[in-house]
């Protein structure tokens, strides 16, 4: 049996949940995968048991049946993408894969990561883990905003970032924008294309819509088989 340790509202574990959802798969409904919810506010990632599995004390973390531990969201998503579902959301040929990788990294490092820094430097819940510099929070939000024109122009005339197909890059950009929306940032106020993208992704991958989206994508995949 494999086990995926996650915290559903946190952005890095959310990547794994949404990657599976985008393939019509419900993370809670995979025969050989056990899901364990980790409550960060209760410091469940610092228990002796969890620390023994992942001394970095982060989620997501995944253990495979042979004892292998994956303790990084990108590694876990690569694994889940290859093992579950048919069509890859990392890209289906070498060029598409490289383009998705590039877009995903820019979305991650310029958008999501900067919002995470803003949160880590401003939230009392992170005070123990991070040597906080509160003035870093607005600067980090500003840095994320600086990257947005790049995505605004990539989405001109396109629903998705790469080859007009939903990919992992879209999921990471959406997760970044959505995480920013919990801070002092409005994802619908930085260009028409980004606003359209955010609203469409949220209608599919927002928490309220997720179960229905999985059913729809699964039905579409089944009808293509
Ligand atoms: N490189 C890691 C980073 C994971 C990470 O930072 N996860 C956050 C949740 S989004 C976490 O576990 N934070 C623990 C804490 O803040 O104490 C990955 O992408 O998996």
UniProtKB/TrEMBL annotation:
SUPFAM superfamilies: GST C-terminal domain-like, Thioredoxin-like. Transmembrane segments: none annotated. Residues 1-88 form the GST N-terminal domain. Residues 93-225 form the GST C-terminal domain. Homodimer. This is Glutathione S-transferase. It comes from Psychrobacter aestuarii. The lineage of its organism: Bacteria, Pseudomonadati, Pseudomonadota, Gammaproteobacteria, Moraxellales.
